Every structure is written in C-alpha cells, then in structure tokens.
C-alpha cells in the first residue's frame, strides 16, 4: 500500500479500464432494471423470447463478473503471493462489508425487489480460498461444481423438506440462506464465480481468448438449453412460472403435489423438472445453459469493447459504477412504486436513461462512482 492514497474521487477517463467488462456489467444492470420494473406482455414469439432473456441470467452474469473482479483485485494473470495476496484479500473483505451494509439498507425500504447485494458480498468471500489456484484447476472446479452443486441443492432441500426443517430470517440462518435456500444459492452461483475467476486469470484482452470464450459459451448454451428443450418438449426452457422447490411443494398443503414423495416424505423433482433449464431452478442444465449465456455475453463485450469505447460510452459509464446504478434503481422504485412491475416501458427507459446520463457526467469528472468510492475506501481501511 502507498501512504499517499487519495481521499476523494479523481478525474479519469475510460482508457484505464477494460471497457468490455463495463459493457457486460451494464447489460447485467439493464437486465435487473427490466426484471424489476416491467411486466411487459409480449405480442409475438421474438419479443416474448427476448423479454425473458434477463430473467435469472442477469444475476448469473453478475456472479461471473464477481469472479472476474476478484481476479483483477488479486493480480490478474499473475496472482499475488504472500503479504500482497493477504492484503488484497482483506480489501475484498472490506468491500464485501459495504455490500452487506448497502444490501441491508435497501432491504429496509420494503420493496419487493430481491436484493442481490448481500449475496454478491458473499460471492466475493466465497472466492477467496480459490484465488491461489491455477486457471486449469479453476476450470476443473467450476466444471465439477456445475454438476455437483445443483445436485447437492436438490438433496439438501429434499432432506430439509422430509425432516420438516426450515430456515429463519435471523442472522443465525445467514449461511443456510446464502448457500442453499436463498434466491441465489452459493452451491450454484459459486460455480459462476469460480468460472469468472478463471477467466480473469487469463489474458482477457487477447482476441483469441475472447473468441474462445464466445465459442465455449455457445457450446454450453446449446448443450444446456438444447438438452432441456429435448427432455421437456420445449415446455419450460424459457418459463414464465416459478421453478420447482421441494420446501414449497411439501409445505403447500392446499396445492396438488407436483413431485414424487417417498415413504419418508422425501420430495424430489419429476423427470421434466429435473431436466428443466428454468431461471432460478438451480438445476444442472440451467447452470450449464445460463452459465454459457453469461460467458458468451462477456466474450462478445470484451471483443467489441475497444471498438465501441466512445459510441457506447454512456452504457459503459453505467457499467463502471454498478453498485451506484443498482442502488439507484431500487431507491427509485421506493419513491415511485408505480415503477415496479409496470405494464408500461416508460418508467424503465426513464430510469435507464437517467442512470446513464448521471454515470456519464460523473465518470467524466471522477474515476469511481460515489458508492464504488465508498467500497474502495472501505477496502483500504480494512486492510491496514
């Protein structure tokens, strides 16, 4: 650490950032805006398919980018060692604490938005034990986790349902929530974080690497979604209903049973549900297919990042301050409840354009967004 760290944001340009990463973040943020502020009713097949793309995939892209961020903060292609790695990890812990605080404050607003920040902070912490591993090892861990994680989720949730167990809302239940029962369970989303860490350890600016990401992501997409389409007859690959959950299935006494119950009350997904690729279903095929989608999106953004640096400056500026942009849209929903799940797209575009204009003006004057600066300073203070 240097002793003359600045105490306020400083003027900067986009030249010292990987623009492709900012573009990917901005698209993930836009997907969150769409999911939380629109109840758009599509008029045809194409716009119906397009309107459902952000569902679940925005959060997965966030998780993938969380892993990339951890790689950038711990040495990129040459991981730090010794005291330098120890300091970098402490800075990540400091940033995670800010995310926990911001997530708690947003939750207190009482909107129906499922706040992702607490999960994001946990993802950062989850990646710390893996920061010293090689790219090859990280790829193997992510690959095995893509199958083992969702399968463990099914077994664990089924066991909890069979035993009549539940997860409360107090701090004692925090680990179970972020790992198993929450909207973004660590047993699944940790796979995307580890995959992002592996990507961040590579030379992301090399065009050959970017093309590999696109090709590999497309293979995973076709494999995951294609198998789900064949196995389910295309009924729930791009769904508009809630996914299977054994706890809900067992406890919903007035609902017709959807899953198979064994002699001990165990609840398992039916064959069609097991092979589903529904958003938030936490199945193997959703993990593979949606993970491939996020990797492809990242590869495309990295590939075109330099070429569209100035053309898409407002979009990249929004992506350079994801914490500020995300918190801003939740606060906007709090003050203007009509923005939430609106049948009109007006509110979505107003919030999106306002965020891009604010980010563009701020980025022209300062190197970090306002909340990003707070997280950065927290990391510095915590590492001393």
Automatic annotation (TrEMBL):
Instruction: Establish whether keyword Membrane is in the entry.
Output: yes
Known InterPro entries for this protein? Bact_Transport_Assoc, DUF418
Q: What keywords tag this UniProt record?
A: Membrane, Transmembrane, Transmembrane helix
Pfam family membership, one: DUF418
Q: Which residues form the DUF418 domain?
A: 275-379
Record keyword Transmembrane helix present: yes
**Transmembrane intervals:** 18-37, 57-74, 86-106, 112-130, 137-155, 175-199, 211-232, 284-304, 311-336, 342-362
Q: What is this protein called?
A: DUF418 domain-containing protein
Q: Which organism is it from?
A: Arcanobacterium phocisimile
């Amino acid at each position: 650490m240097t002793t003359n760290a600045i105490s306020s944001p400083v003027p900067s340009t986009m030249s010292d950032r990987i623009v492709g990463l900012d573009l990917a973040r901005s698209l993930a943020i836009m997907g969150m805006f769409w999911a939380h502020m629109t109840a758009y009713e599509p008029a045809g097949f194409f716009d119906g398919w397009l309107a459902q793309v952000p569902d679940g995939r925005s959060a997965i892209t966030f998780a993938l980018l969380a892993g990339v961020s951890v790689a950038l903060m711990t040495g990129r292609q040459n991981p730090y060692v010794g005291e330098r790695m120890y300091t970098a990890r402490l800075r990540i812990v400091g940033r995670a604490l800010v995310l926990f605080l911001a997530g708690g404050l947003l939750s207190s607003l009482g909107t129906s938005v499922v706040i992702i920040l607490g999960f994001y902070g946990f993802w950062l912490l989850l990646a710390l034990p893996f920061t010293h591993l090689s790219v090859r090892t990280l790829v193997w861990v992510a690959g095995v986790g893509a199958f083992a994680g969702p399968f463990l989720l099914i077994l664990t949730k089924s066991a909890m349902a069979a035993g009549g167990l539940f997860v409360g809302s107090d701090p004692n239940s925090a680990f179970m929530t972020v790992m198993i029962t929450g909207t973004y369970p660590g047993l699944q989303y940790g796979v995307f974080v580890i995959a992002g860490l592996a990507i961040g350890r590579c030379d992301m600016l090399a065009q050959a690497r970017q093309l590999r990401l696109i090709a590999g992501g497309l293979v995973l997409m076709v494999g995951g979604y294609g198998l789900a389409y064949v196995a389910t007859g295309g009924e729930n690959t791009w769904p508009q209903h809630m996914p299977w959950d054994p706890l809900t299935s067992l406890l919903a006494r007035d609902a017709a049973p959807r899953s198979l119950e064994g002699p001990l009350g165990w609840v398992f997904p039916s064959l069609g549900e097991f092979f589903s690729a529904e958003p938030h279903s936490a199945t193997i095929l959703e993990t593979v297919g949606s993970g491939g989608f996020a990797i492809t999106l990242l590869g495309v953004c990295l590939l075109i990042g330099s070429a569209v640096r100035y053309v898409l400056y407002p979009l990249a500026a929004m992506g350079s301050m994801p914490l500020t942009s995300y918190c801003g849209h939740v606060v906007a929903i709090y003050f203007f409840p009509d923005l939430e799940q609106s049948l009109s797209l007006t509110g979505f575009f107003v919030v999106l354009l306002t965020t891009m204009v604010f980010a563009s003006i701020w980025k022209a004057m300062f190197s970090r967004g306002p909340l990003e600066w707070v997280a950065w300073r927290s990391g510095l203070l915590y590492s001393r």
